[in-house]
């Protein structure tokens, strides 16, 4: 019995820090690059939806990405926190998005009690980063959902983020609820 518990413990601790693939069991990263991937999205024409916030975090961690509706529901923008420039928030949208309908469906802080300590951590057993989903690794990265064209996404959600893998047009795309904005290297 002790041997079985030891084997189960080793098995669980070994898989706790493994790569997570969402969408299928193969993913999109080449097999020889899997060791550098922490979180991967495998299905085409779907994206990662960022949290939409009415109030930006007070002490965000560098690398935080969100859909900011703190000014108003009609001026929402995808932003990331770099911790340095001005207030540290960098606009990725370049234009206002209207998330009025989205916010009408979300409960307000007066309607729910949020557990501010709750978070899912991938890559480590703990993290000091403040976020709902925290990827914690010094050597691995997240592979965004990859699409051939944002026009192939039937109904993009406000806050959606994808990587467009098109010949001559490889770039990050973010949707602010109204328009897609594109960032290329």
Task: Describe what you observe in this structure.
- With 185 residues, this protein is an alpha/beta fold.
- Helices cover 11% and strands 26% of the residues.
- The protein has 2 helices and 14 strands, in the order H-E-E-E-E-E-E-E-H-E-E-E-E-E-E-E.
- The chain has helices at 2-16, 100-105; strands spanning 20-22, 37-41, 48-49, 52-53, 65-68, 77-81, 89-91, 120-122, 133-135, 141-143, 146-147, 160-164, 171-175, 180-183.
- The strands form 4 sheets. Strands 3, 11, 12, 13 and 14 form a 5-stranded mixed sheet that branches. Strands 4-5-6-7 form a 4-stranded mixed sheet, with no helix packed on it.
- Strand 12 (160-164) and strand 13 form a beta hairpin.
- The N and C termini lie far apart (55 Å).
Helices and strands in order, then pairings?
Elements: H1 2-16, E1 20-22, E2 37-41, E3 48-49, E4 52-53, E5 65-68, E6 77-81, E7 89-91, H2 100-105, E8 120-122, E9 133-135, E10 141-143, E11 146-147, E12 160-164, E13 171-175, E14 180-183
Number of strands: 14
Please report which band the strand proportion falls in: under 5%, 5-15%, 15-25%, 25-35%, 35-45% or over 45%: 25-35%
Q: Over all CA atoms, what is the radius of gyration?
A: 18 Å
Elements, N to C (H/E):
HEEEEEEEHEEEEEEE
Task: Indicate the overall shape.
Answer: globular
Low-pLDDT runs of 5+ residues are: 1-18
**Helicity range:** 10-25%
How would you characterize the largest beta sheet? Answer: 5 strands, mixed
By secondary-structure content and strand pairing, the structural class works out as alpha/beta
Q: Specify the number of helices.
A: 2
The end-to-end span amounts to 55 Å
Overall mean confidence score, pLDDT = 78
């Amino acid at each position: 019995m002790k041997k079985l518990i030891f084997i189960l413990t080793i098995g669980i601790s070994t898989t706790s820090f493994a790569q997570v693939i969402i969408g299928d069991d193969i993913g999109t990263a080449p097999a020889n690059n899997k060791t550098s991937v922490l979180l991967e999205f495998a299905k085409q024409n779907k994206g990662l939806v960022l949290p939409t916030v009415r109030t930006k975090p007070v002490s965000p961690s560098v690398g935080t990405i969100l859909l900011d509706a703190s000014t108003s529901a009609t001026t929402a923008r995808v932003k990331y926190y770099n911790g340095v420039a001005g207030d540290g928030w960098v606009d990725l949208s370049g234009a206002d998005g209207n998330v009025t309908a989205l916010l009408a469906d979300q409960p307000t802080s007066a309607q729910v009690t949020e557990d501010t300590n709750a978070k899912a951590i991938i890559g480590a057993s703990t993290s000091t980063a403040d976020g709902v989903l925290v990827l914690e690794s010094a050597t691995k990265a997240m592979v965004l959902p990859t699409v051939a064209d944002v026009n192939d996404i039937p109904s993009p959600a406000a806050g959606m983020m994808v990587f467009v893998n098109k010949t001559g047009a490889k770039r990050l795309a973010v949707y602010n609820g109204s328009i897609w904005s594109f960032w290329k290297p």
